[in-house]
Amino acid sequence: MKPVGQTLFSRLKAACATEWDAFVRHPFVLELGDGTLRQECFRHYLGQDYLFLMQFTRAYGLAVYKSDNLEDMRQAAAGMAAILDEMGLHVKYCHEWGISQDEMASLAEARATTAYTRYVLDKGLAGDLLDLHVALAPCVIGYAEIGTSLRLDQAESADNNPYRAWIDSYAETRYQDLARTQTAQLDRLMAARGGPGRFPALVEVFRQAVRLETEFWETGMTLAQ
User: Fold this and answer.
1) Contact 116, 209 (CB under 8 A)
2) Domain positions in the chain
3) Digit-coded pLDDT (tens) for 88-126
4) Does domain 8-219 have CATH number 1.20.910.10?
5) Is 0.90 topped by the overall pTM?
């Protein structure tokens, strides 16, 4: 049973506090927030994020397959639809940065892109629906936390930030609602499939996912392939 007032996500985050701080306070994120990130780094990130989202769409399709009841199927299908909608916005946003969809589709995946997305799919294939959603959580819920934090931290200089639209897309209500839905789904799955003895293993799934997500930021900073 979870402690009163704590979600599974908050417990996982607390258990991986060092890794989580390195993720949400990575130099890539901080420079996005204050507008000093080199634009070539951001363009590289945008291209890789397109490939990243393609794989995450597959992960939500896997979540539908791994579901054993209609409610979980509907939640997974809604998540997949939200990611597909996000991809449409992503393509439009990339076009504004001078990157076409054809150009992004022809890119090779960076090692960090492959590492995290295949880790998520592997956890979903080898484990159950709870494993899959825990592996997804750092990205889905973490981006909501980052968007909110950057909007608050950079409120005064937001108008001059070339990355304001990116920040706003993750701080806005629609994405925040998606993150809240994902947080609630983790709690439902833990209640149905988990138990006190399962938490340590879930922590390790979460910890590795956070580390791999952090390496994805690092790829954006170094332009490594």
Assistant:
1) yes
2) 8-219
3) 888 989 999 999 999 999 999 999 999 999 999 999 999
4) yes
5) yes
